[in-house]
Specification:
- The chain is built from ten helices and 30 strands.
- By secondary structure, it is of the alpha/beta class.
- It folds into two domains: about 270 residues, Spore Coat Polysaccharide Biosynthesis Protein SpsA, Chain A, CATH 3.90.550.10; about 100 residues, 3 Solenoid (UDP N-Acetylglucosamine Acyltransferase, domain 1), CATH 2.160.10.10.
- Strands 1, 4, 5, 6, 8, 9, 10, 11 and 12 form a nine-stranded mixed β-sheet that branches.
- It is elongated, with a radius of gyration of 22 Å.
């Protein structure tokens, strides 16, 4: 199927309240990840690697950082003259005075843009998960089943799915015969303690999508959500199928992460500095693209016997300088500076963080542009961190907000 007949819509407008303070000034998809990336880069890279080159990103809250990232980092990958684009679309209230009321309503309010492209198939994606997936394989499955809609599904433990995932029941041909959105007691697959969880990734044939959204918009009782309303109401009358997730990460365990909480975000980042991380960022066959600023290489300064700039089991991004300090099992974003006799361990530092001489940081997430004074300690005393206005998670991770001056 020609890629010209496929349109991707990325829902990138969520508040991300569970990630505060990291989402205090930016949308969740724009949150930095792995030092060099933003969360949105994984969904966009999946589209690009799947040869889907017509993309609409629907934004709503705190979209400036995301807009800038798309403009600076992604526009160069698409040729407008060839009909390719990755366009950021803010709410425009063409069909009413409301902001987006749900995932289905967000797409419904932009039907004019969909119809303008006249795609045969529409891929609906979230912009806030970390994974590698070839959507073209899912599209081939969709076409082979003559499906009206196809839902990407991932086998998950029932206790993980409870209250977190839409749960799918299928027949022997993978046709969906039951769908519950985030049930407290999920139904497991036959002869298994696992259930089939919806990944929030959908492919729709255009005519079905148009009809389903029109019908949903006219229902005043609807929450206007794909998982809660569109799919459960369609499974009896239409051909709705489940496509089991095929991972392009090429590891033993399928990798898909919802980094919607601070602890989940921290753990996903810490995986990257392991000797053999679950997520492979170094696979050129399935590259992760992003905006790479024009910064100099990272630098490590050996001053004398007592001051050795050292980073072990860590990711250090361009522009950063480790000047006589020690970095252990940590991620440094662009243009960080770790000064003499300081120590950073088991931590994630966003860009432009300055760690003062003799300061110590442990099990922390430090947002960008934070100036840490000499001899300060972060992550060693949870109560002291809370008194200073920092967030401390359930698992004891200290989070320092953007632009804080200690």
């Amino acid at each position: 199927m020609s890629r010209a007949n496929i349109l991707a819509i990325i829902l990138a407008g969520g508040r991300g309240s569970r990630l505060e303070p990291l989402t205090r000034d930016r949308a969740k998809p724009a949150v930095p990840f792995g030092g060099a990336y933003r969360i949105i880069d994984f969904t966009l890279s999946n589209c690009y690697n799947s040869r889907i080159r017509k993309i609409l990103l629907l934004t709503q809250y705190k979209a400036m950082s995301l807009n800038r990232h798309i403009s600076m980092g992604w526009s160069r990958y698409f040729c407008r003259e060839m009909g390719e684009f990755a366009d950021v679309v803010p709410p425009q209230q063409y069909v009413g005075d409301n902001w987006y009321l749900g995932t289905a309503d967000a797409v419904y309010q932009n039907m004019f843009a969909i119809e303008n492209e006249s795609p045969d198939y529409v891929v609906i994606l979230g912009g806030d998960h970390i994974y590698k997936m070839d959507y073209s394989k899912m599209l081939r499955f969709h076409i082979s089943r003559h499906a009206d809609a196809t839902v990407a599904a991932l086998p998950v433990a029932s206790e993980t799915a409870a209250g977190q995932f839409g749960v799918i029941e299928v027949d022997t041909d993978c046709r969906i015969v039951g769908f519950e959105e985030k049930p407290p007691q999920p139904k497991c697959m036959p002869d298994s303690d696992r259930c089939l969880g919806s990944m929030g990734i959908y492919i729709f044939s255009r005519q079905f999508l148009h009809e389903a959204l029109d019908r949903d918009a006219a229902d005043p009782q609807s929450a206007h959500d794909f998982g809660s309303n569109i799919l459960p109401s369609a499974i009896k009358e239409y051909r709705i199928f489940a496509y089991t997730f095929m991972d392009e990460n090429r590891k033993t365990e399928a990798y898909w992460r919802d980094v919607g909480t601070l602890d989940a975000f921290y753990e996903a980042n810490m995986d990257l500095v392991r000797v053999d991380p679950l997520l492979n960022l170094y696979d050129h066959r399935w590259a992760i693209y992003t905006h790479h600023p024009n910064y100099p290489p990272p630098k490590f300064v050996f001053a004398d016997g007592d001051r050795t700039g050292l980073a072990v089991d860590s990711i250090v991004c361009p522009g950063s300088i480790v000047s006589g300090g020690v970095v252990h099992r940590s991620i440094l974003g662009h243009c960080c500076r770790v000064n003499s006799f300081s120590r950073v361990e088991d931590s994630v530092l966003f860009s432009d963080v300055n760690v003062g001489r003799g300061a110590k940081i442990r099990r922390a997430i430090i947002d960008k542009d934070v100036q840490i004074p000499p001899n300060a300690e972060i992550g060693y005393d949870a109560e002291a961190d809370r008194r200073r206005g920092f967030t401390v998670t359930e698992n004891g991770i200290t989070v320092v907000a953007k632009l804080v001056h200690l």
